[in-house]
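Students often ask why inverse folding is considered easier than folding. One informal answer: many sequences map to the same fold, so there is more than one right answer. In these notes we will look at a single instance of the problem. The structure comes first.
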């Protein structure tokens, strides 16, 4: 019974879904049309003019980071502690990116990712959402096991 609970634990499902979304976003960043001004994409830096969905500033490095974040998440989602660590740790990373995006000049060399205002809002939402999912669903799975015991 414990094996089934671990296999279907909600924090693992959430981490898998979040990881899949990061993989899709990473792939979409390399698709002309989904990414506007695709010809203006640079490897890194604020000089990249490519915009995912015409909203989010992207570069080759930015897309690769999304792909890697998705791959790492899928690997970590294999266990309950790994899935929880991915969501909470990833949320912390996005909180730091949000702060970074607020304090740097978007037209400076420090904007190597690159980031814009829409990215900053998305990073804040991701931080809150990922940390919230990691904490709430880890507890939800524990509460469900306690109630069944």
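Output (designed amino acids):
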């Amino acid at each position: 019974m414990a094996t089934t609970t671990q296999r279907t634990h909600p924090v693992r499902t959430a981490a898998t879904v979040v990881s899949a979304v990061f993989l899709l976003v990473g792939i979409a960043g390399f698709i002309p049309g989904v990414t506007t001004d695709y010809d203006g994409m640079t490897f890194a830096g604020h000089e990249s003019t490519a915009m995912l969905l015409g909203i989010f500033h992207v570069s080759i490095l930015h897309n690769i980071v999304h792909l890697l974040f998705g791959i790492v998440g899928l690997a970590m989602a294999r266990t309950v502690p790994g899935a929880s660590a991915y969501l909470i740790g990833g949320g912390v990373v996005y909180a730091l990116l949000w702060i970074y995006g607020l304090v740097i000049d978007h037209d400076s060399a420090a904007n190597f990712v690159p980031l814009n205002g829409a990215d900053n809002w998305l990073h804040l939402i991701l931080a809150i959402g990922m940390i919230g999912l990691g904490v709430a669903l880890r507890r939800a799975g524990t509460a469900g096991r306690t109630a069944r015991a």
